[in-house]
Amino acid sequence: MIIHDFECVIGIEVHAQLKTKTKLFCSCPTTFEAGDNENTCPVCMGMPGVLPVFNKEVLNFAIKTGLALNCELDSASVFARKNYFYPDLPKGYQISQYEKPICKEGYVDIVLADGEHKRIRIERAHLEEDAGKSTHHGNYSLVNYNRSSMPLLEIVSGPDMRSPAEAAAYVKSLRSILQFIEVCDGNLEEGSMRADCNISIRKQGDTGLGTKVELKNLNSFRFIEKALTFEFERQVDAAMSGETIIQETRLYDKDKNKTYSMRSKEDAHDYRYFPEPDVLTLTFEEALVDKIKKDLPELPLATAKRFVSDYGIPEYDAVVLTQSKALALYYESAIADTKNAKAVSNWIMTELLRELNDAKKSIEESPISAKQLAKMVELVDAGTISGKMAKDVFAEMWKTSKDPEQIIDEKGMKQVSDEDALLKIIEEVKAANPKQLEEFKSGKDKLFGFFVGQCMKASKGQANPSVLNKLLKANL
Amino acid sequence: MNLETAKISEIVNSVQSNKISAAEVMQFFLQRARQWQDKTNAIITFNPEAEAQAAKLDAAIAKGEQVGPLAGIPVVVKDLLCTKNLKTTAGSKILDNFVPPYSSTVVERLENAGAIVLGKANLDEFAMGSSNETSYYGNVKNPWSLEHVPGGSSGGSAAAAAARMAPLAIGTDTGGSIRQPASFCNVVGLKPTYGRVSRYGIVAYASSLDQAGPMANYIEDVALALEVIGGKDPRDMTSANQAVPQFSNIQKEVKGLKIGLPKEYFGEALSSEVRSICEESIAKLKSAGAEFVDVEIPHLDYTIATYYIIATSEASSNLARYDGVRYGHRSEDAKTLEDLYCNTRAEGFGEEVKRRIMLGTYSLSSGYYDAYYLKACKVRRLLQNDFLKAFEKVDLLLSPVTTSAAFKVGERISDPLEMYLNDIYTTSTNLAGLPGMSVPAGFSSAGLPIGVQLTAPHFAEDRLFQVGKVIQDMQNVADRRPQ
Questions:
Q1: What's the DSSP call for residue A344?
Q2: Separation CA A180–CA A194 (nearest Å)
Q3: Average pLDDT over residues A224-232
């Protein structure tokens, strides 16, 4: 994407909350539904003298992710303290990884809407603990430490994306990978996955990097794209009018579709990183990596490629259908019951995903089961119902979760293909519209459509359109 | 049995066999503790439950229940170790109102072994000091001479053990905080190998150096206490997965044992009185059959600088949690978040603590990290190598603990650098993670105690007890008590 000879350079830091049973350095549960400060203990509250103990479950998650992101794994990664004061940070430092992260130098391949393939580099992925959550109430603030010490994997991409759409595609791909390997829910809205986007601009053809601005508070794919688009334009405007772009962190305001400054580099902390003396070097045996590698499930892009070759659907459709493991499973389970894989894909891509999105439902919550959708496609293919009727059946299935056959039965929606029955309707329509019939006969061809419509109406929409057409042509 | 000179095992045996009740033992020591408290200020908080807990133990014994190896032993615990439901201050105003909802592993293990916390010992604020003069709760006085400091930072623990306010005390040692006050107070003080004793629940000063250990009148008591408190703890990743031997079964012979004399420890700074007491111990060990070998610790000169950079760097981070948000002191006149932090910490921390936070913050700052913190870590490694090399030749080291006997209250407090130099012979042990022990070895002409320091390879505390026992038997000062 180019604006006035400027291109944008985008790199993204994704914080993925790992779905372990307990926190990173204590045995508190990670459940989302809990009363304020219910999931806390002296360790994640930073009480005096208590010590962090590494949760071994996290190691498996990190290795799994590293493998899925084609990373190099460090069998001796080191935790460090990142020191800064904030009330939601109970110890006054965050335990993170700094100089020696567990994963580095990997990549994610993405497929764009126009079919273009692109490889986005992963610079590093490191483990760290989350902070608590502050809420502000007029003249006082409250802190909830349930989130304190939740395990996060921070995945840092290279500055490889050149448009807001590419950025969104990358985060989508990353999310689907994390969901496929079951390490992260990938819920942007609830914050189990958070994407901070760094964006700078440069003249087309330049190779250096400009001053970057970090965007935070982007809790949907749409906002990622909109915020980056706004910011790209803002930076181009600034550059065109001779202003210098300053290094800063900006927040996105979704209501105004604007970004505004949160803090500039001058306010940046000196985090005084140093190796965390309370936590041992994180080591593992190669055998553990081998075992995890063996158990690694098929990743989204491989699944998409298989969909293309096995079911003949377009690659972009296959990428959309593999956005989440649940969706891919839904698709596969639907096409087990019908041969028309393309039609199933179309129904999912157009109708089902739109309905789910509008209702803010996940595929797991779909009122229409994969079996029901497949059955509906079969009924269309068998000529039992028309494509138009199928839309009504779909709407009814969405509302009631009933089987398509039942809906068709209840509503008497069966398609009429019987020629005698249709001829009877045609004769009735002809008798009722002598004037139009006369005009048609005298050469006004356009009126053919009128007769199709009238016959359809008379059949309560149940006439098989192709049979009806054929009969009308012969009998007008 | 004379409770003033009885070893812990004697008291425990008597309690177990009903010759004396735990309640009687507790009453005896509580009475002594109260008398000496007025003179020394060794204790910050007495445990109001101590007598009730002793009575409970007696009831258990009466019912024939199995009791542990420290049954009925009153113990004074440095107020840096968290005690569930009993105020834990770290000697600081900032934790003046802090009652932990958990106990440190050390306290838990002591209590599981039947020991009863008599009180919480005074200390330098956050264990930062060598004279016990930086405590928010007032300085501790040396029971041997009330004009003198007891040493620090475990000054309260040392004074309590010396004055026999309890037969056992627990201290912590980050740069000499057990060994130096032990030397100043005629007490055996052991800093175990780093990782031997769990740090869980001990208010952190410098995490890579801190280690808790026992202080008592007799080697046997210290060895027994280490058996109880030592060993892997799942709540402390840095606690070592090392078997805990039966330390109290002390090897009697020192014949053929090779003891190293690191020449750098016997330089010009050493006072003649300390030197002669060391020489006396050396002569006696020789007569017992030990062999002495000169060794070198070439990087000893850098130990103070290295220690004060690493310890303060870690401390600057460890003490960040005292922010007034969740517990402890909270400034009342704060209008903004920044005020809350600044005022709380300005009001809550004492001068020495602030100085060390500043030093450590500076050492870790961007632009200074490589020159200070990172360089110090490298020197630390060199120092460790010095010791490992020395231990290729010898079984353990003997050296002075300090250059001189206890100094006077107020004498060094105004000159931090002179105070820091006090730690010249002790900090290297912590930097190398080694076990070290101060053993009472004699008295100065002014009647002040002087100890000698023994240092062993990692996890070879048994050698400290083996040699320490010979010094204890031959020097014959362990039974002396201040009047």
A1: H
A2: 18
A3: 94
Task: Point out the residue among B98, B200, B321 whose CB comes nearest to the CB of A91.
Answer: B321
State whether A318 and A406 are in the same domain.
Answer: yes
The alpha-carbon radius of gyration of chain B (Å, integer) is 21
Residue A318 and residue A213 share a domain:
no
Query: Does residue A195 share a domain with residue A107?
Result: yes
pLDDT of residue A451: 84
Chain B positions touching A42 (Cβ under 8 A) are 100-102
In this structure, the answer to whether residues A304 and A168 fall within a common structural domain is no
Find the mean pLDDT for residues A391-405.
84
- The answer to whether the CB atoms of A85 and B320 lie below 8 A apart is yes
Q: Which residues of B touch A143 (CB under 8 A)?
A: 325
Angle between helices A387-400 and A370-381 (to 10 degrees): 160
Which residues span the domain enclosing A451? 419-475
Q: Is the N-terminal amide bond of B428 cis, ω within 30° of 0?
A: no
Q: Chain B window 412-471: which residues touch A at a Cβ cutoff of 8 Å? A: none
Residues A237 and A315 in one domain: no
- Best residue of B200, B232, B321, B327 to probe chain A, by most A CBs closer than 10 Å: B321
Over residues A8-15, mean pLDDT: 96
Q: Does the annotation count B177 as an active-site position? A: yes
The pLDDT > 70 percentage for chain A reads: 99
Nearest by CB to B320, which of A51, A92, A143?
Answer: A92
CATH code for position A435? 1.10.10.410
User: What topology does CATH give the domain B8-257+461-475?
Assistant: Amidase signature (AS) enzymes (3.90.1300)
Q: Which pTM was predicted?
A: 0.90
pLDDT in tens, B162-185: 999 999 999 999 999 999 999 999
Q: Is B78 a catalytic residue?
A: yes
State whether A227 and A151 are in the same domain.
Answer: yes
Q: How confident is the model at residue A266 (pLDDT cuts 50, 70, 90)?
A: low
Q: Of A48, A54, A92, which has the smallest distance from its Cβ to B90's Cβ?
A: A48
Q: What is the pLDDT of residue B233?
A: 98
A386, A411, A436: which is the final residue of a domain? A411
| Same domain (yes/no): A67, A160 | yes
What would the 3-class secondary structure string for chain B be? Answer: CCCCCCCHHHHHHHHHCCCCCHHHHHHHHHHHHHHHHHHHCCEEEECCCHHHHHHHHHHHHHCCCCCCCCCCCEEEEECCECECCECCCCCCHHHCCCCCCCCCHHHHHHHHCCCEEEEEECCCHHHCCCCCCCCCCCCCCECCECCECCCCCCHHHHHHHHCCCCCEEEEECCCCCCHHHHHHHCCEEEECCCCCECCCCECCCCCCCCCEEEEECCHHHHHHHHHHHECCCCCCCCCCCCCCCCCCCCCCCCCCCEEEEEHHHHCCCCCHHHHHHHHHHHHHHHHCCCEEEEECCHHHHHHHHHHHHHHHHHHHHHHHHCCCCCCCCCCCCCCCHHHHHHHHHHHHCCHHHHHHHHHHHHHHCCCCCHHHHHHHHHHHHHHHHHHHHHHHHCCEEEEECCCCCCCECCCCCCCHHHHHHCCCCCHHHHHHCCCEEEEEEEECCCCCEEEEEEECCCCCHHHHHHHHHHHHHHHCCCCCCCC
Spell out the domain ranges in chain B. 8-257+461-475
Among the three residues A387, A411, A435, which one is the final residue of a domain in this structure? A411
pLDDT digits (tens, 9 = 90+) for B342-371: 999 999 999 999 999 999 999 999 999 999
What is the pLDDT at residue A86? Answer: 94
The answer on pLDDT for B274 being more than 70 is: yes
Residue B208 and residue A277: Cβ atoms within 8 Å?
yes
Return the structure tokens found at B101.
């909802």
Q: Are residues A427 and A319 both part of a single domain? A: no
Average pLDDT, chain A: 90
